[in-house]
Amino acid sequence: MEKLPKIAFPIIIGAIVLIVLLTKSAVTIGSGQAGVLFKTFGEGVVIDEPALGEGFHIVAPWNKVFIYEVRQQEMLEKMNVLSSNGLDIKLEASIWFQPNFVDLGKLHQEKSEMYVERVLLPAIRSAARSVVGRYTPEQLYSSKRDAIQQEIFEETKKIVEPQYIQLNEVLVRDVTLPSTIKDAIERKLKQEQESLEYEFRLVTASKEAEKVIIEAEGKAESNRILSASLTDKILQDKGIDATMKLAESPNSKVIVIGSGDSGLPIILGNQ
C-alpha cells in the first residue's frame, strides 16, 4: 500500500476545516422569515442594515443570526376585566400582528424574541381594561361591541407601534357576563322589544282610524255638495229624460201627462 504524499495531509485537514466553517457559516432563512445578524467581534446587533431576507446566506462562523417570523401572526387572549360599575367581565380577543421588518434589528436589541410577552400582551391587556371600564354590562352585551373592539385596537396600536410591532387588527370574539346579569339584560331587552311592538300596533291602529275618519268625512262632503246642487229644476229635467226613455220602450203602458208631482208624467202599466 502506497503512502499518501506529505502534502495530502494538510490538504485534507484544510478541506475538513473549510467544510466545518461553511457549515457554521451557512444560514437558510425560510419563507415568511427574516434574520437579525449579531456580530460577535463587531458592534453586536446590526440595526443600521436591513434584516436578512429569505434564502441562503453566508455569514462569518463567529457571528450569529436570530430568525424571526415576519408574516402576520394571530394570538388569542382571554382576559378578565371590570365594567364601569365594577362587574367582572370575561373578554376573548384575537390579535393580528407582525414585527416591523424595517426595524427588526431594533426590536431584537431592545425587546428580544420575547417581544410578544414583554410588549404586546401587556399592551392589549391594559387597553382592554381601560376601554371596557368605560361601559356598562348592557352596552358590552348589545350595542357597543364594535366600538369597544375599535377602541381597544387604537389604544393598543398607540402603545406597540413605537416599539417596532405592527398591529393589524383586534377582534373581540366573545364577551361573557355573569349569568345573573346576562339574564337580567335579556329580560330587559325582551320587555323593551315587546313595548316597541305594542307602540307600533297603537300607531298602526291610530293611522287606520284616521284613514276611516277621512274617508267618511270625504263621503259626507261629497253628499253635501251633491244635495246642494240638485235643484227642483234639475230633478224635473232628469225625470223628463227618464220618462222619455221609458216612453220609447216597446212595452205597453199608459202615460198621463202633467199629473204627477211637480207636473211630471205618470206612467201606468208595464205589460
TrEMBL record:
<keyword id="KW-0812">Transmembrane</keyword>
<keyword id="KW-1133">Transmembrane helix</keyword>
<feature type="domain" description="Band 7">
    <location>
        <begin position="24"/>
        <end position="189"/>
    </location>
</feature>
<dbReference type="InterPro" id="IPR036013">
    <property type="entry name" value="Band_7/SPFH_dom_sf"/>
</dbReference>
<protein>
    <submittedName>
        <fullName>Prohibitin family protein</fullName>
    </submittedName>
</protein>
<dbReference type="InterPro" id="IPR000163">
    <property type="entry name" value="Prohibitin"/>
</dbReference>
<feature type="transmembrane region" description="Helical">
    <location>
        <begin position="7"/>
        <end position="27"/>
    </location>
</feature>
<dbReference type="GO" id="GO:0007005">
    <property type="term" value="P:mitochondrion organization"/>
</dbReference>
<dbReference type="Pfam" id="PF01145">
    <property type="entry name" value="Band_7"/>
</dbReference>
<dbReference type="GO" id="GO:0016020">
    <property type="term" value="C:membrane"/>
</dbReference>
<dbReference type="InterPro" id="IPR001107">
    <property type="entry name" value="Band_7"/>
</dbReference>
<keyword id="KW-0472">Membrane</keyword>
